[in-house]
Recover the amino acids of this structure.
């Protein structure tokens, strides 16, 4: 990873602000085209909205109702590409729409919707939709209510268990092709001359050290932070986004399929999904004009989801809630209810010399990155085309069939070279430091590995990880204490006060 001096003395064609999935995708795309790329991220890679998503790789049945056919088609095409280039991270998943006390009109609407969804994914590798009777529905999903159940619709989409790692693998590949990428490095302002961006002032978040980052072209890929960064760079207040919050609950195991449900409270579509042996429930959609960095699930969000799920899965109230997770959507500003705002993205030159991505989904990240990279490449006079649709991500080759293979894909055998003290955890922690830009204990437990999905949010493995990282990064006792506190605070946010305070009759805290 480059230090600040290397960033400020580097000769870059393009500097990208934001190391979420979209910035990472652009960095990879342009590095593969031969551009000299720098990318800076103010937190850890993937720690923004990318880690707050529902983790579905889907066209989005819901968007058909909004007549966003172009968006659905693009995402269904991208779903197929991701299944090919990241088979270790993106897996097919069966979705069910249980018909519980639904009208004939609702069933007819679903029938048409699923037909259209299949038609728009004409090049799919996944099975098409079908309808199940009540017995088959219950055989697959025994926890579903029997009260008013009358079969279900079934179709396939996909799931990315760890979008954080999808993001990371884009950056690992970008770096392998010469990109300089740095986390914990924040863009503070820009130097604008003759109306165009000349350089960015960046600050090391840990040391406070500042440096100038020069490039020929800049990209603002800061998602929900777009307006803040656009304002800092242009010096003029920007209000292009509508930002909405969505939360998820991680509960004990209950479902086998991804269930598409409509809240009896307001008719909104939401999901109850199996994820890493747990049940993942979400999401909400409420305006959130605040700083996305501090987003957190509140009691009202949790209660909304539980009350929405209960009529379909009465057992939900007796499940332990292990953690909550929240993210902020960046939607191109539009009036109307939160859920009615289009998810279509835009790529624009929002300041001369700076291209920006507004909106977008994880599913479409590669195509969005291609569109933004095309614009940058045209400006730079780079003629090489995009290669990201056909070139597998670093772990996308043949993977060993063990737990490490499921997480690291074909890179899993590389971890053996890092074996030593603290067993498997130590080896993965050292691998994360030397191969995956890992700087902190919480980076490792929350975003390099799946440990934070355990009911204890990774507390059992944290001491080994801390010990291995302390040796590797030279942390003294005070630094280890700071690291421990950082992790506790991140885990505490995930557990959320609202969950901790929940009375025992509504959830059992682990
Ligand atoms: C609740 C919810 C559920 C979702 N579910 C899905 C889903 O199931 N499927 C799907 O496809 N999409 C889903 N999405 C959408 C998807 O998560 C986002 O579109 C995607 O993650 C956006 O990626 P990004 O890179 O634009 O933003 P981010 O991941 O937020 O990355 C932007 C980065 O910019 C950094 N940054 C900000 N300011 C600065 C600065 N000054 N200097 C340096 N760096 C800075 C931030 O720290 C951040 O890491 C969901 C979104 C939400 C909120």
């Amino acid at each position: 990873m480059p230090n600040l001096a290397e960033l400020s003395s580097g000769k870059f064609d393009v500097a990208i602000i934001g190391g979420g999935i979209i910035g990472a995708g652009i960095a990879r795309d342009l590095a593969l085209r031969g551009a000299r790329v720098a990318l800076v991220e103010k937190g850890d890679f993937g720690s923004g909205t990318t880690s707050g998503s529902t983790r579905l790789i889907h066209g989005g049945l819901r968007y058909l109702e909004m007549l966003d056919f172009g968006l659905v088609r693009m995402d269904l095409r991208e779903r197929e590409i991701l299944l090919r280039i990241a088979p270790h991270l993106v897996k097919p998943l069966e979705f069910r729409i249980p018909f519980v006390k639904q009208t004939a009109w609702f069933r007819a609407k679903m029938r048409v919707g699923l037909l259209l969804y299949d038609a728009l994914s004409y090049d799919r590798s996944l099975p098409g939709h079908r309808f199940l009777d009540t017995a088959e529905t219950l055989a697959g999903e025994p926890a579903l209510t029997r009260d008013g159940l009358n079969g279900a619709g079934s179709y396939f989409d996909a799931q990315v268990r760890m979008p954080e790692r999808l993001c990371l693998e884009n950056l690992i590949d970008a770096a392998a092709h010469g990109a300089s990428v740095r986390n914990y490095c924040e863009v503070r302002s820009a130097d604008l001359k003759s109306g165009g961006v000349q350089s960015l002032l960046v600050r090391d978040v840990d040391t406070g050290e500042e440096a100038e980052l020069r490039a020929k072209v800049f990209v603002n890929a800061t998602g929900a932070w777009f307006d803040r960064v656009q304002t800092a760079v242009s010096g003029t207040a920007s209000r292009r986004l509508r930002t909405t919050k969505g939360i998820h609950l991680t509960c004990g195991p209950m479902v086998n399929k991804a269930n598409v449900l409509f809240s009896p409270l307001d008719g909104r579509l939401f999901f109850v999904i199996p994820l890493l042996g747990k049940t993942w429930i979400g999401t909400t959609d409420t305006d959130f004009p605040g700083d996305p960095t501090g987003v957190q699930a509140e009691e009202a969000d949790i209660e909304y989801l539980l009350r929405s799920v209960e009529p379909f899965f009465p057992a939900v109230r007796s499940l332990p809630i292990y953690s909550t997770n929240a993210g902020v959507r960046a939607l191109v500003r539009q009036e109307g209810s939160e859920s009615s705002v289009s998810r279509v993205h835009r790529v624009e030159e929002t300041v001369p010399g700076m291209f920006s991505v507004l909106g977008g989904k994880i599913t479409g990240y590669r195509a969005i990155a291609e569109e933004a990279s095309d614009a940058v490449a045209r400006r730079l006079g780079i003629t090489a085309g995009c290669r990201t649709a056909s070139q597998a991500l670093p772990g996308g080759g043949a993977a060993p069939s063990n737990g490490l293979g499921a997480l690291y894909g074909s890179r899993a055998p590389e971890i053996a070279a890092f074996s030593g003290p603290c067993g498997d955890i130590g080896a993965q922690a050292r691998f994360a430091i030397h191969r995956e830009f890992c700087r902190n204990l919480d980076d490792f437990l929350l975003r390099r590995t799946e440990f934070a999905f355990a009911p204890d949010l990774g507390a059992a493995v944290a001491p080994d990880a801390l010990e291995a990282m302390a040796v590797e990064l030279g942390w003294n006792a005070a630094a280890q204490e700071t690291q421990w506190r950082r992790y506790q605070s991140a885990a505490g946010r995930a557990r959320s006060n609202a969950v901790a305070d929940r009375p025992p009759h509504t959830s059992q805290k682990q």
Observations:
- The radius of gyration is 23 Å.
